[in-house]
Amino acid sequence: MIGQATPDRRLGLIDQVAEDMREQIVSGAWPVGSRIPTEPELAALAGAGRNTVREAVQALVHGGLLERRQGSGTYVVSVSELPTVMERQFSAASQRDVLEVRQALEIVAAPLAAQRRTPEQAERLRSLLLARSRAVAGGDLDEMVAADMMLHRYIAEVAGNPVLAELYATILGAVADNVRYNFQRLGSRGDSHVALVEAISSGDSARAALEIERYLAQMADSLPD
C-alpha cells in the first residue's frame, strides 16, 4: 500500500506521506466512502511517526479528500481537491454570480441530456424527480436541497460530456448554497422541474433548453437588486 516514505529535496516527510496517501485515493485503492487505515496502521505502512501521519492526514482533510468522523474514523470523501479549492474561491460570490454560471452550464447540459439519455437514464431522472417532489412536500429544507442537487447533478452527467460534468461538480458547493437560498425565498414556487425532466426523458432537446432557461431566468429575475 503506502511505500516507505523518505524525504527528498522536493518534499518533506509530511508532504511525502500525504502524497502517498493521495495516490491511494486517486488510484481507487481507497475508494470514496471507505474508511482509511487507523493512525498506527498508517504509521507502520509509511514507516513514519504517528505525528507525521497525523499531519499528513490533516493536510488531506483540509484539501477535502478525507473527513474525520468522531468515534468512527477517517473516510475518503473525494478523489479531487479541486471542489474544495473552488468552494473557497466562490465563498464571496453573490447569488446572481452563481446563477449566471449555472445558466452557462445547465442551459447547455439539459438539451445534451435530452439528445443522449438512455432509457435507463430517463427512468433514473424520473425517479430523482419523484424523490425531489416528495422532499418538497415534506418541507424539510435539507432534504429539499439534497434532492434538488441530485437531480441537477445527474442531468449534467447524462449530458455525456465529462468536461461539463466535472466543471459542474467543482461548483456543487456554490450551487447547493444557491438552491438553499432559492428555496428559503420562494419555496417551490416557479418550479418547472416536471416539464424539464419530461423534456429530457422524451428526447426533446429544444424544450429541455427552454425549460431550464425559463426556470433559471425566473430565479434570476426574483433576486433583489
Outline the secondary-structure elements.
Elements: H1 13-26, H2 39-46, H3 50-62, E1 66-69, E2 73-76, H4 82-89, H5 95-116, H6 119-138, H7 141-158, H8 162-170, H9 172-186, H10 193-201, H11 205-221
Antiparallel strand pairs: 1-2
Helix pairs in contact: 1-3, 2-3, 5-7, 5-9, 5-10, 5-11, 6-7, 6-10, 7-9, 10-11
What does this structure look like?
The protein has helices spanning 13-26, 39-46, 50-62, 82-89, 95-116, 119-138, 141-158, 162-170, 172-186, 193-201, 205-221, and strands at residues 66-69, 73-76. It has 225 residues and is mostly helical. It has two domains: 13-79, Arc Repressor Mutant, subunit A; 84-221, GntR ligand-binding domain-like (Four Helix Bundle (Hemerythrin (Met), subunit A)). Helix 6 (119-138) packs antiparallel against helix 7 (141-158). It is elongated and about 60 Å long. The termini are far apart. Mean pLDDT is 87; it is low at 5-10.
Q: How many beta-strand segments?
A: 2
Summed up, the domain count is 2
Number of helical stretches of at least 4 residues: 11
Cα shape: elongated
Average residue-wise pLDDT: 87
Strand order across the biggest sheet? 1-2
Residue stretches low in confidence (pLDDT < 50, at least 5 long) are: 5-10
Radius of gyration: 21 Å
How would a textbook summarize the main sheet? 2 strands, antiparallel
Please identify the structural class as seen in this structure: mainly alpha
Compute the separation of the termini in Å.
55 Å
The named CATH superfamily of the largest domain: GntR ligand-binding domain-like
CATH architecture of the largest domain: Up-down Bundle
* Proportion of strand residues: under 5%
- In N-to-C order, the SSE pattern is HHHEEHHHHHHHH
Helix content: 55-70%
User: Would you tell me which CATH topology of the largest domain applies?
Assistant: Four Helix Bundle (Hemerythrin (Met), subunit A)
CATH domain class name of the largest domain: Mainly Alpha
